[in-house]
Amino acid sequence: MVTIFWLVLLYSIAIKGQEFPSLAESFPNGTLPLSDEKRLTQRLLTILQTTGKEGRPVLNYSQSNSVKFGLGLIQISLDEKEKILITSMWSQLKWKDFYLRWNPGDYGNISQVRLEADRVWIPDIMLYNTADPKNAARNALVMVQYTGELTWVPHQIFKSSCSIDVTNFPFDKQKCHMWFGSWTHSRREIDIELSFPEGIDLSTFQSDYKDSSEWDIVNPEAEKRYLPAMSLFASFLVLLLILVEAAPPTASSVPTLGLYYCFNMVIIMVAICLSSLVVNIHQCGNQSYKKVPTWARKILLQCLARVLGIKCCSKCKPFQRRFARRDTNGYTRDFTECTNLLPKSTFKSASGDISTTSIYLLECQLGELRVTLNEILKRIRLREEERLDQMESFYQWKSVAKVLDRLFFIIYVGVIAVSLAVLFPKPMASHIFSSSQTTKTAAGNNTN
């Protein structure tokens, strides 16, 4: 072990004592070869060092800079309590710098390069009604075209103030404004144009959209569709506990609101069971391929589906029509006439005599071929019938689940409406009746 240590130490000392030539000395002229992009970048940086990034890049002071400005929406949220609109966007700015132009033929047909944003002049377009004084764009390179056109697309998170109207809360609609403009330049110095007709490109919102942490879209056919109902059940349970804590312990009657909470909890449990039933019925076509019972087809798919306005088994009909055409196209006919396709008079020997043995042999081969073809066609027909039956049963079970889901939804809404009409008008009617009696008594006392 000690020997290995001393060998490594001696090797490192020997390497340290050697003098390696520098990168510049390895070339004949002592100069580093630069690519066309490197030469072009150095030329542009030299120009920027001479002109500086301060001041607008125009040849005449009276000339205005035309800046195209646009936003690409990624995510949006509204803090109603703090009255702040938070948006995640791509900012797009395009302008021209007359000093950063070149001939592509002199630099290997390079038409664009990228420079750091802190090296060039950038329009000071900011959000006027900002609620975040530290709003800053993330670092992004500036793309420079040979015509002098610069494009800068940084990612920014804007926090803007928004006036909130809570008259229709929680079903309110808010309209927030975002005001952008140059912070120090006037309109004569910087002319801002919109890159998009509405100012915001919503295609980025559809492609770069991020899921919200507060809610999620659940497929109606998903097996976890009962989870929102479980959360709602827990919410009603918490509200019921709060009501129990707030109510007097020696009260002789039960609050109507408590009855409503209990009734909703029962309805939610029933809805969870019915949702599980609908999901299981929907999965019957995928798992077992069992046919829908006759009574279910007559009652649900024929009667209730029409009443509820649901079209059933619309995807089964094309398969049935295609199968019917295939059944009559001549491929399944019997091959009994195949023996007449080759008359015996056509089979003759070299001397002109009829060869009976060859005719019998050919007839036997044709018979075996006919039987084989019939078996193949029967198997194809059976497989096609089985596939069509599976598809038909799949879409029928799916239609049954859709009809039951619509029926249970209508029943649920009706039960909730009836419960509201039965439970809550009673205390209001008694309150109105007692108020009218008090008014009549007071009026009678005043008359006396």
TrEMBL record:
PANTHER family: NEUROTRANSMITTER GATED ION CHANNEL
UniProt keyword list: Cell membrane, Disulfide bond, Glycoprotein, Ion channel, Ion transport, Ligand-gated ion channel, Membrane, Receptor, Signal, Synapse, Transmembrane, Transmembrane helix, Transport
Subcellular locations according to the entry: Synaptic cell membrane
Residues covered by the Neurotransmitter-gated ion-channel ligand-binding domain: 42-226
Principal location: membrane
PROSITE patterns reported in the protein's UniProt record: NEUROTR_ION_CHANNEL
Official protein name in the record: DgyrCDS2007
Leader sequence residues: 1-17
